[in-house]
User: Which sequence fits this backbone?
């Protein structure tokens, strides 16, 4: 998952949802008062939700998981703008039809195509040592001969602000902000280069945004400010950040050499829409979604292969089970989420006049580990309906309302559309996130199947209720 | 720590000690019967052991930890045969004198000098993917153009034995044995190349010997059998081993390209001996030890910077505290442990006629995490004395007797010399072992200081007791 700059700026106070152990609720929904009739109607779905979950857990889940594994192992990393991403989209289109659902369409858009060609770094002083780096998406290259310069380790933007420009000028700034939450710490990755460049830095290296490392650098998006020199920027490991901090504290002069080469252009990609048309209100949509693109390291199995797959599976399995809800269930496989929600933004723009028809929008992009419940955005009544529906999924009935439910769907939520993202036991999510460690090894069949079962059954109820999820 | 082939062959059934959670005891020492006088004498040390531990925990431990950190950050990895290892040895000699102990000598020996020059690997079929590799020490190079060949994933030596030679010939064997214990699983690293070569394999890649990975390959020693073709051999990550296993199971043909270049010669290195001479029996030795060399990845902070440092610190702090036991306390900083206990073997050979004077030999080479007690080798009476001494260190009073206490000291133990290695909370030891993850980040000051306090105080008692530790 990714958080674009404008979202970060809008929501720095509430983007703590990503690690479910630190979700901050904005509202207390202990006092829900729904009509007795609606409560009764919701309760009446218990048989069908039980059936959906049982069918997935006992029969179809394994097929789905095997398709998921095969997808990940066949395509691996699927960066925005690449051919492999487009082939993986073709694969999912074919897979949809193969599993009996033909209502699959795509919507083209232009996406960034940033390619990591070569990267290397080493410490030259006080002693020679290789430094593992991983450039951030959209980083500029160094000159061909690389950059050799003294490094200065900086703890925070506050410390940067307080440091004389003369002390920074001509140096490589090493941001050594320790992980607090993703939202708190990711700003050094996403904004660090321009902030340091304004002080005269010639490159930045950023402590990876993770609480734990086995010498693994983590990439991610970053955003240059307008009218500020663009300087190369890359992740380093926790281990090397700590080493440089200790060396600086001991009075050692640190000299680094960095070489980075990347290319950047624009390509065509596609959002993929898989519809199970509604039986009564086909124009009304309950959207379930995940993104099909990934960073260029690891396999993109967790971010967001799992979320994409359980969302894709939702209309497919409901169709197989011949369960046709009143509203259309649309799975969207977003493209180009990682460079900044590019696919979601294109969809929003294209469908701006139809937004009223989106009844509810869901996303899974924070892991498909053991499912716990939902982080819900919307009016109090919307949250209360979700809460009532979740009761029949206990123990998968946790409900939070962080105000930042997911990544791609946030731009819809901020148009007033109610939505929810999957809460799951993702305490180790950032150990692997945007790194070579994001592989099938972090997933288990049981967890992913449980997520898929919950995802499909919950969506079915929302799509079939007699009432729309109210915006007010 | 390292386990040389001959030790593995001798002790495959008992080398489970390394992860303390799976220590298998060979004897039950619940029925110790020591002389009342000796029990009383041991109890009388309680004041002095408390004082030693208190002085280290409150005063000198922090100095030691800072020296340790500075040592690791200054020299980093210290592979056998390198100049940096020799400079790090010089540093420890100077540090000994700086802290007031002048009785420091070195003994020269010839050590292997294997240098990793270049390594790379990629999967060419069924799709192109970079494969992280880390060659095993003493591996031969590939031809300059590399090796391109089909891979076959093999689960065990048993499966290898049962597979037709024709099926293996000309292929790269990928050993995918899952971690059980280090002792059980390391054989694929140490013996896999020759076993596969006998079947006609042209290279081997081995699933890293670790229960957990964030895409981190782990190196280590390996041993070619005589009269068997020497083929290149390297570690791969758990993630890529699992990927190749899944691809093979799905019927895909896997083609790999491997390029490895290394050099190999012999250099002079030194074991370092730091003596606090005994007040009554200076010729009798209580040895405390760890190895100063490391693999060429990471910082060698855990393996075995910590063990080397707490052992070095033992005579140094006793001297500072003006505690001169009856016997000599000798710290030995073994050189060239990683290529196969080369330093320890040279010491054993050189001192073969003085072995009777080694009263007890200790080693810390399995981590300096929270100390738990000792794994003891020796006669029942020896174990019972250690057990009695440990009582005053509770809760650091766990006693096991696996038969394989440590690595370097095992060759002394098998000469009949009683000895012990440090038990500690090292459940994550193999997450970092022989990888880029072996850095100061895995250590904490509290744990290392606690290890040092226990190590020094325990050694003092053993070195000062009125009775020798009995061999029978």
Assistant:
């Amino acid at each position: 998952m990714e958080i674009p700059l404008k979202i970060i700026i809008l929501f720095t106070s509430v983007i703590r949802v990503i690690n479910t152990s630190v979700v901050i609720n904005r509202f207390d929904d202990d006092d829900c008062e729904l009509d007795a009739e609606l409560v009764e109607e919701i309760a009446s779905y218990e048989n069908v939700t039980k059936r959906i979950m049982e069918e997935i857990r006992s029969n179809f889940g394994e097929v789905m998981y095997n398709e998921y594994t095969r997808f990940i192992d066949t395509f691996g990393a699927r960066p925005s703008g690449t051919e492999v991403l487009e082939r993986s989209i073709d694969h999912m289109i074919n897979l949809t039809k193969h599993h009996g659902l033909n209502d699959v369409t795509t919507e083209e858009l232009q996406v960034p195509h940033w390619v990591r060609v070569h990267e290397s770094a080493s410490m030259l002083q006080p002693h020679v040592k290789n430094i593992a780096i991983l450039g951030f998406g959209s980083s500029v290259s160094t000159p061909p001969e690389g950059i050799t310069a003294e490094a200065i380790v900086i703890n925070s933007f506050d410390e940067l602000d307080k440091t004389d420009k003369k002390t920074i000028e001509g140096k490589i700034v090493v941001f050594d902000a320790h992980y607090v939450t993703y939202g708190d710490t990711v700003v050094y990755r996403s904004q660090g280069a321009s902030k340091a460049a304004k002080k005269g830095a010639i490159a930045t290296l950023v402590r990876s945004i993770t609480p734990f490392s086995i010498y693994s650098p983590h990439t991610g998006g970053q955003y240059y400010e307008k009218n500020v020199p663009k300087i190369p920027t890359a992740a380093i490991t926790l281990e090397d950040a700590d080493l440089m901090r200790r060396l600086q504290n001991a009075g050692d002069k640190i000299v680094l050499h960095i070489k980075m080469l990347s290319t950047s252009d624009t390509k065509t990609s596609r959002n993929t829409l898989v519809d199970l048309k509604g039986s009564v209100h086909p124009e009304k949509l309950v959207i379930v979604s995940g993104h099909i693109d990934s960073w260029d390291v690891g396999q993109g199995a967790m971010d967001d292969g799992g979320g994409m797959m359980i969302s894709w599976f939702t209309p497919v399995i409901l169709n197989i089970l011949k369960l046709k809800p009143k509203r259309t269930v649309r799975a969207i496989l977003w493209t180009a989420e990682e460079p900044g929600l590019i696919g979601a933004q294109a969809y929003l723009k294209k469908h701006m006049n139809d937004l009223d028809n989106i009844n509810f929008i869901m996303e899974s992009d924070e892991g498909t580990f053991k499912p716990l419940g939902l982080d819900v955005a919307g009016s109090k009544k919307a949250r209360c309906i979700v809460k009532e529906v979740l009761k029949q999924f206990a123990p998968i009935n946790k409900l939070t309302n962080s105000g930042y439910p997911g990544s791609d769907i946030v731009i819809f939520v901020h148009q007033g559309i109610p939505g929810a993202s999957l809460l799951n036991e993702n305490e180790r999510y950032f150990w692997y996130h945007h790194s070579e460690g994001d592989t099938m090894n972090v997933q288990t069949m049981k967890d992913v199947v449980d997520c898929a079962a919950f995802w499909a059954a919950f969506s079915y109820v929302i799509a079939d209720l007699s009432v729309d999820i109210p915006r007010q």
Observations:
- The first strand of chain A starts at residue 104 and ends at 125.
- Chain A touches chain B at residues 69-70, 73-76, 126-127, 129, 132, 213-216, 238-239, 242-243, 246-247, 250, 298-299, 431-432, 435-437, 439-441 (CB under 8 Å).
